Amino acid sequence: MPDVSFGYERVTATEKAQRVDQVFHSVSNVYDPMNDAMSLGIHRLWKDQAVASLDCYQNDIVADLSCGTGDLSRLIIDRIPYGQLHCIDPNQSMLDICHQRLGEHNNTHFHTNYAEKLDFNQQFDKLMLSFGLRNFSDEDTSLNNIFNSLKVGGKFVIMEFNPPKSSSFDKQYEMYLKYIIPCLGQLLGQDESSYQYLADSIQQQPCPKERIEQLKSHGFDFIKYTPLTMGVVGLFECYRCQ
Q1: Tell me: the pLDDT tens digits for 191-242?
Q2: Which residues fall within 8 angstroms of residue 104, CB to CB, at 6 or more apart?
Q3: Is the distance from CB of 68 to CB of 43 less than 8 angstroms?
Q4: Alpha-carbon gap, residue 98 to 70, rounded angstroms
Q5: Structural contact between residues 67 and 75, judged by C-beta atoms closer than 8 angstroms
Q6: Which residues on neighbouring strands pair with residue 204, listed in sequence order?
Q7: pTM for the complete prediction?
Q8: Sign of CA dihedral 12, 15, 20, 23
Q9: Per residue in 136-190, pLDDT tens?
């Protein structure tokens, strides 16, 4: 029986995982230029701030979950010269690009894995999740796994889309998601349907208060929320304290 959202559709968890995987196979070659086009380059500032908020030490063991093509991984690796970086993504096409960019770093490891099945022999000091939470087929299981993958005292940073903070911006943002993103997907990537899903999935995101309550329910403490660019993106910082 359908029980999770794929954009505005209700599908089974298995079907969502398969369809999300197909979306990212389809867009992997245009993913980075599309991010620049869709955000007018602002996503680079968001990612700089997200990586800075990890507060990495030089010997930290860090996971970049849903690492995609590795744009955040490249920022993280410079901060942990004596540590380890684990780049994790379920989509092999995206992970292959990440490996091409970072494979020369001996302290970087690559894993094809779903957050719903996250299971490592070691635990991480820090874990980054950037624009991946909405693609999970089972958020509760994934967040439990993330919590268990962190050391006690470890830090978890999420960057994800939000409903915009300013109500006066609601209509323009809705039009942008409904029309501009799919149009850019067709023009730049010849793939309107994949970017229609990405736009629809953004509109399904909970408000920051609901996201904070979700993190609390999974055991995270000292949760800090920072709105970025009129709140269309939220930066959430939290810790495993027990």
Answers
A1: 778 778 888 888 888 999 999 999 999 999 999 999 999 888 999 999 999 9
A2: none
A3: no
A4: 5
A5: no
A6: none
A7: 0.93
A8: negative
A9: 999 999 999 999 999 999 999 999 988 776 666 677 877 777 777 878 778 776 6
Collapsed DSSP state (helix, strand, coil) of residue 9:
strand
Whole-angstrom distance, CA of residue 20 vs CA of residue 135: 7
Q: In this structure, which amino acid lies at residue 95? A: L
Distance of alpha carbon 19 from alpha carbon 166, whole angstroms: 32
Question: What three-state secondary structure class fits 159?
Answer: strand
H or E stretch including 222? strand 221-228
Find the helix or strand (DSSP H, E) in which 236 lies.
strand 233-239
**Residue corresponding to tokens 């050391």:** 151
CB 156 within 8 A of CB 129: yes
Token duo for residue 8: 């505005």
Kindly state the tokens that stand for 45: 């500032």
Of 60, 234, 30, the residue nearest 134 (C-alpha): 234
Following DSSP, what letter does each residue of 27-74 receive, concatenated? Answer: HGGGHHHHHHHHHTTTHHHHHHHHHHHT---TT-EEEEET-TTSHHHH
Residue 173, H or E segment: helix 170-175
